[in-house]
Amino acid sequence: MAEKDASATAALTEPRCSVARSAQLLADRWSVLIVRDAFRGVTRFSDFRSRLGIPSDILTARLNKLVESGVFERRPYRDDGGRERLGYHLTESGRALLPVLGALVQWGDTYRASEYGPSRIYRSATTGERLRVAFVTESGEVIADENVEVVAGPGEIDDVAPYRPGLAPSNP
Amino acid sequence: MAEKDASATAALTEPRCSVARSAQLLADRWSVLIVRDAFRGVTRFSDFRSRLGIPSDILTARLNKLVESGVFERRPYRDDGGRERLGYHLTESGRALLPVLGALVQWGDTYRASEYGPSRIYRSATTGERLRVAFVTESGEVIADENVEVVAGPGEIDDVAPYRPGLAPSNP
DNA sequence: ACGATGAGTTTGAAAAACAAACCTATCTCT
DNA sequence: AGAGATAGGTTTGTTTTTCAAACTCATCGT
After folding, report:
1. Which nucleotides of D are covered by protein (CB under 7 A)?
2. What is the DSSP secondary-structure string of A59-96?
3. Right CATH number for B3-147 from 1.10.260.40, 1.10.10.10, 1.10.3720.10, 3.30.70.2740?
4. What is the pLDDT along chain B (172 residues), one digit of tens a residue?
5. Partner of B115 at 20 to 30 A CA spacing, among A50, A111, A140, B141?
6. Has domain A14-147 been given CATH number 3.30.420.270?
């Protein structure tokens, strides 16, 4: 209850590393699949439930967490001859997860390919061209992964080395 | 042991959806952080352990899983006056996860920003320009998320609608 | 009033994660 | 040769989380 507790909690639950913060929310067996299905147009509790085969208490818990963290918002809807209910819709923040899913799909299709071929294909809505996920500069130039380096930002606490693709990690 | 079992198992453990396959491997509390640290140059069991605060039995299990699935490979090393040991190094497949981490960082920095600023910054190794993750065509044109659509591929089993950014998911 | 339906809760059993102690092979030092 | 030291794990017993199945609750059309 004291401020000390609040900040101690924050230190534990709000790590400085974005990967850790994002992972805290998304890195469990179900959350990613829930978001994936949301991008496929699923909004209803019972649809998530039947498509994923997820226990309903877990679904409740995950949806609550995702709503609290602003990935989903609840929006009322009503079927003909039905009571008003709440559907789960991606917010702007939720829709911004598309590149995460895109990157995941791309990796899965490349390195853990299924015998059936890709199940989802990313295309330009305007030209229909096939898309992939890549690093780009602000001026729109595509940079190959081998030419990407990762360095410490202001939030970095760690004394760890930058990642440089040429210099293989630590012990070559 | 019969073929039937094998394929039934495959159906359960090797879903057609790349998101599901990738998530199966990476979407747990620790795997993402292990891979993140690997990109920061960590290779040793004890370094993963002390940096992450992960129980060692869990770390063993995760590293085994990641080695089995080809994200890491074990490589022997020897410190001065030490016995030979095995380090864990990202394979090509593991290094190909960089865009996944990049996308995750970008989302976290944007929608769940820490008060300290980003902890890791992605730059061009050649020009130093700041990078972001985006969808691009094969000819290198950057496509905004709003102009990305996702359609069923050959592996799709589902009768679900394509994702189109304009047409808000299902219940607008 | 009555049953149907969607969206959850509750309950008790099974699986996974956890912390801490322990083990093991090889090294250095004596 | 024997005594630590150390990295990299296993083992053990407890706590959390997940799971499946049953149950509740509010509201609808009949």
Report:
1. 6-12, 18-22, 26-30
2. HHHHHHHHHHTTSEEEEEEE-TTS-EEEEEEE-HHHHT
3. 1.10.10.10
4. 333 344 444 445 678 899 999 999 999 999 999 999 999 999 999 999 999 999 999 999 999 999 999 999 999 999 888 889 999 999 999 999 999 999 999 999 999 999 999 999 999 999 999 999 999 999 999 999 999 999 999 988 765 567 776 544 333 3
5. A140
6. no
